Automatic annotation (TrEMBL):
Catalysed reactions, as listed in the record: Endonucleolytic cleavage to 5'-phosphomonoester
Single Gene Ontology MF annotation: manganese ion binding
Taxonomic superkingdom: Bacteria
Protein's name in the database: Ribonuclease HII
Organism listed in the record: Candidatus Daviesbacteria bacterium RIFCSPHIGHO2_02_FULL_43_12
Major site of localization recorded for this protein: cytoplasm
Amino acid sequence: MFYATSDLESKLWSQGKLLVCGVDEVGRGCFAGPVVAGAVILPPQNPPNLPMPSGLADSKLLKPEVREKLAREIQAMALDYAIGLVEVDMINQIGIGKATQLAFVRAIQGLKNPPDHILIDAFYINDLDKSNQQPVKDGDKLSVSIAAASIVAKVYRDQLMRELDAQFPGYGFAIHKGYGTKLHQSAIKEKGLCLLHRTSFNLTKFL
């Protein structure tokens, strides 16, 4: 397991940018359910060894029980955190790319204070000032702030999909969380599409 470090954050803290916000999304590639972004501002520390939850990494690589424990610890110690969510109807209307960007913006807008700098996994947030953004390739594997945002967002979305499973039974949303697994594809073929599905993803090919 490759764990994230605070190297990127430490450089920014040393420049006086104390409110460094990590941002990441989950659910972008799912067949169903919302896309969710997390934004997390961790307390600045110097030297760069953070007295924070150990084992921060890409949320997809962590076991569910580990993610949930880390999410609680992150939320308890963070200076600020927020969730940005975009529902299926909006995804179908504007496309997943723009919907993901909107989720990023909503997460940042949900913070109590604007961050001094944003570290984001892979790409810029188009509708925000790019001068204080830093896209980081594989950021959820490298930056503790981005990894923390990834974990908080995934735990939130997974819980939401478990709740939505009760509203849309028979698809296995509590199991696969809306991703295009064989189980999910078989359920679509058997039951058809429901209101939780992203029709903009051309899912009719699985019917």
